[in-house]
Amino acid sequence: MTNTVRCIPEGEALDREAIVASVRAMEREVQAYVPGYRLKADPVFERLPTPWGERTVVSMLLEVEGAGDYLPKYAGNLDIMTASARRVGEVFAQHLLGKPVEEVVA
User: 97: exposed, middle or buried (C-beta count within 10 Å: 0-12, 13-18, 19+)?
Assistant: First the structure.
C-alpha cells in the first residue's frame, strides 16, 4: 500500500532539517510495531496554492508492505490498522496500570 501524506506547517520560517528529522524519527517509531512501514523518500517541500493562499506544503510518500501471513503483501493497509490498534491497546493498558509508555515500546 502506498500513500501520500501532505501537511501545511504553521508559519513561514520552517526548519526543514528539524522537520525531516522528526518525520524520520516517527518512521522508526512506527516501524517498531509495523515492520513493513517506510518512507519512500525524504519529505518534499514545495510552494503550492492552499485555501490560505500560497504556502509551503510538506509531502511524504509512505509505503506499507504487509507481512503476507494471511493476506497478500500489497494489503499493508490492513496490517497497519491491526498493528496500530494493538499499539493503542498496549499504551492504554499501560496508562491504566500507571506505567510509563516507554516500557511498552519494543
Answer: exposed
Q: Measure the CA dihedral 86/88/94/97, to 10°.
A: -100
What region, left, alpha or beta, does residue 34 occupy, with left being phi > 0 and alpha being psi -120 to 50 degrees?
beta
Instruction: Identify the pLDDT of residue 84.
Output: 82
Burial class (CB in 10 A: 0-12, 13-18, 19+), 39: middle
Q: What is the dihedral of CA 44, 46, 48, 50, to 10 degrees?
A: 60
The CATH code that applies to domain 2-103 is 3.30.360.10
Assess whether pLDDT exceeds 80 at residue 51. Answer: yes
pLDDT given at position 103: 52
Cβ-count burial 12-28 (b if 16+ within 10 Å, e if not): eeeeeeebbeebeeeee
Q: How does strand 53-64 pair with strand 44-50?
A: antiparallel
